[in-house]
Amino acid sequence: MSAGEKAKTEQAEGKAKQTLGRALGNDRMAAEGQAEKSTGDAREAKEKTKDAFKR
């Protein structure tokens, strides 16, 4: 799995976990989901930056 794919996976899993946590009223799960999504966002930004410098 490439870093870009991993970023997308983290974003999707985080969003799903966040949504489920909110639906269940579980603030901790929602916060964990947000953190996972943010990690994926940061990883994606890093990959885009690396790609920009390769060109």
Task: List strands and helices in order, with pairings.
Layout: H1 3-24, H2 27-54
Helix pairs in contact: 1-2
Question: What oligomeric state do these chains adopt?
Answer: single chain
Helix run count: 2
* Sequence stretches where pLDDT stays below 50 over 5 or more residues: none
Order of helices and strands: HH
The chain-level structural class is mainly alpha
Biggest pleated sheet: none
Number of DSSP-assigned strands: 0
Helix proportion: over 70%
Radius of gyration: 13 Å
Quote the distance from N terminus to C terminus: 22 Å
Observed structural traits:
2 helices, 91% helix, elongated
What this model shows, in words?
This protein is an all-alpha fold. The chain contains 2 helices and no strands. α1 packs antiparallel against α2. It is elongated, with a radius of gyration of 13 Å. The two termini are 22 Å apart. The model has no long low-confidence stretch (mean pLDDT 93).
In short:
91% of the residues lie in helices and 0% in strands. It is mainly alpha-helical.
